[in-house]
């Protein structure tokens, strides 16, 4: 290619890089804002959007999840957009490094989820079960999300009713959530053991397996975008040496 054609190609890719990362930056800001909204006024959020679907998002604290994802997208979008606009090799390399770390983490998480399901369950249990014991019945938003989940999915806790042993809810009501006893009250350990309502993790895992094709397609699309973003950032980084 002639020098003019090369410069035109460089300019086009630079503009696309800026626009793409600007979209990521704005998306991150939106998610961060929604996460803060859910944290501050979760009940209003639930009233507007209604019952949440049975997905993994209902097993964790949605507000913190949105805030973390939003903050990460803000950082990525800023590094990519500003780095391309200013033609900064330092920022472009930081953008490449952050996306690469996220890509590696996603691949590792996928391997754990697909190959080591038992380990994934152990890790999730270690994170979620303490939250159930400490926040269910205390945090209004967290409690509402779990109530919707357990009612709609017909499940109890992450693994089963024992997740609520020595919990704030049990100490306050001397009972398990009614969902653990198929909505019968009072829900004591004897009745909960007889009902043997399954935990939400198993139900959600089954749903994920049922929709594995869609989930895999989405994951592949995200991975392709990340690889493309790294390739473009590295192209711009290398072309800056020739300018």
UniProtKB/TrEMBL annotation:
Alphabetical list of SUPFAM superfamilies matching this protein: Tetraspanin (SSF48652)
Gene3D superfamilies membership: Tetraspanin (1.10.1450.10)
Function of the molecule: Structural component of specialized membrane microdomains known as tetraspanin-enriched microdomains (TERMs), which act as platforms for receptor clustering and signaling. Participates thereby in diverse biological functions such as cell signal transduction, adhesion, migration and protein trafficking. Regulates neuronal differentiation in response to NGF by facilitating NGF-mediated activation of NTRK1/TRKA receptor tyrosine kinase and subsequent downstream signaling pathways. Plays a role in the inhibition of TNFalpha-induced apoptosis.
InterPro entries per the UniProt record, alphabetical: Tetraspanin/Peripherin, Tetraspanin_animals, Tetraspanin_CS, Tetraspanin_EC2_sf
Any single Gene Ontology cellular-component annotation: plasma membrane
Gene from which the chain derives: Tspan1
Keywords, in A-Z order: Disulfide bond, Glycoprotein, Lysosome, Membrane, Transmembrane, Transmembrane helix
Entry membrane topology: Multi-pass membrane protein
Quaternary context: Interacts with SLC19A2. Interacts with NTRK1/TRKA.
CDD domains (UniProt xref): uroplakin_I_like_LEL
Family: Belongs to the tetraspanin (TM4SF) family.
Cystine pairs: 155-187
Cellular compartment(s): Lysosome membrane; Membrane
Chain segments annotated as transmembrane: 12-38, 58-79, 91-116, 214-238
Name the record gives this protein: Tetraspanin
